[in-house]
């Protein structure tokens, strides 16, 4: 695929299909879990979630919380709670030992609908919950953690889960894993680039150097210093891809900075949390 030098853009085709399927399944579920990424807690929300999800009861999981500062994240959690009026639970599929709080909340949220079914004389059935969210936020990882197995496939790239899949967690709860969709307009490039930082858009939608430069651009002063320290750039030198390349000796012929390679490493280091813990949204947005 040809990479546009200035824009991030993805094929709307398979997203439209996934969105259609998601809507089809909605009538089958009691509630919805929306998984967001702690590094972009505002930008990884679904824009039109209430429209798309048809006012289903739902709650939010702020996953990958191991990659951010807990105190800073708490401020965003408060905002999200106020805004949505729902439970907002920080999680980490990597480190949380006990994700049972998710199971409890899911069952609680479904109870009303199950009671209605039972009032009609039908037998009690397990709560059915759909797990939605952008690609790569950790939906499948959380479900696997809850089943203590690898029933769903996970992966560091966007688009690993291609189909919806029901997973039984226990006799009271079944979860539906879904392929992540990006229900936003591509015109919102400021947000698209944040999705690229955290690997929520496939890497054929952009070129690394543009996204890497943007990543350096959105950092605040404190974050910039942490980056400089990590790559060994002196405090009075500017934080640029070129300077990172020179400090790390990522060079091509004639000792020129190897920008392509540097961009790739920078994004990788950031995504793996090696440089530090960063939230890249802004509270006064
Ligand atoms: N650091 C960290 N990585 C995570 C966490 N949850 C998932 N991942 C990683 O993120 C990538 C995407 O996970 P996956 O479950 O496939 O995301 P999905 O597309 O939403 O289903 C994988 O490489 C996971 O190992 C988490 O809480 N913390
Ligand atoms: Mg998945």
List the main descriptive attributes of the protein structure presented here:
285 residues, alpha/beta, Rossmann fold, six-stranded mixed beta sheet, 41% helix, binds guanosine-5'-diphosphate, binds magnesium ion
Care to describe what's here?
It is a single chain. The radius of gyration is 20 Å and the shape is elongated. The mean pLDDT is 88. The chain folds into 2 domains: 12-177, 3-Layer(aba) Sandwich (Rossmann fold); 207-271, no CATH class. It starts with 11 loop residues before the first helix and ends in a 14-residue tail after the last helix. With 285 residues, it is of the alpha/beta class. A 6-stranded mixed β-sheet has the order 3-2-1-4-6-5, sandwiched between helices. It contains 10 helices and 6 strands, in the order αβαβαβαβαββααααα. Magnesium ion is lined by residues 139-140, 154, 160-161, 177. Residues 63-64, 66-67, 92-94, 133, 135-141, 154-156, 160-161, 180 line the site of guanosine-5'-diphosphate.
